[in-house]
Specification:
Helices cover about 30% and strands about 10% of the residues. By secondary structure, the protein is of the alpha+beta class.
Length: about 160
């Protein structure tokens, strides 16, 4: 867009009165006459559900529903995320790595050959979701409930693609 076309509108504020006058000029008797909706032809005919209270378009229906109010909420994700990002959990991971010497603890691991330098992951012996379901919160960061595995073996152990 060329510069300077809208210089005459600099500092112009759209007041409520201006907007209402503009709307009245655009829609007369249910017909769109121009202005805001150039190119639209015909008569505005809202259907029965257009302006009902609480009606949202399907694509935007879940925007304001967060956490346990969202229909896709599974109940574990938010808590799981909070636990895995907590300072105690991060310290537990580092302690597990240090205790195991930063080496995969799977005997004769075919992925990393038990050498240092591979991507490591801390594995819960009693899974995290079971610890939460049985209310064993202390097991989450217990040193005896963890072991170090390389990423590839850990993915295979849990049935994820390698």
């Amino acid at each position: 867009m060329p510069k300077g076309i809208y210089k005459h509108r600099k500092g112009f504020k759209q007041t409520k009165e201006w907007i209402e006058n503009r709307r009245e000029g655009c829609i007369k008797g249910g017909k769109i006459t121009g202005g805001w909706s150039k190119g639209t032809k015909g008569i505005l005919k809202p259907n029965k559900t257009s302006f009902k209270k609480g009606h949202l378009k399907p694509a935007r229906a879940y925007v304001f529903q967060k956490g346990n109010k969202h229909p896709m909420f599974r109940g574990v994700y938010d808590t799981n995320k909070k636990i895995r990002n907590s300072p105690e959990y991060l310290q537990w991971r580092l302690d597990i790595y240090k205790r195991d010497g930063y080496i995969c603890q799977k005997e004769n691991c075919e992925y990393c050959n038990n050498k240092t330098g591979s991507k490591l992951q801390a594995h819960h012996i009693v899974p995290l979701n079971e610890c939460m379901a049985l209310d064993y919160k202390e097991l989450i960061t217990d040193m005896d409930n963890g072991v170090t595995y390389c990423q590839d073996f850990h993915d295979e152990y849990h049935g994820r693609k390698v």
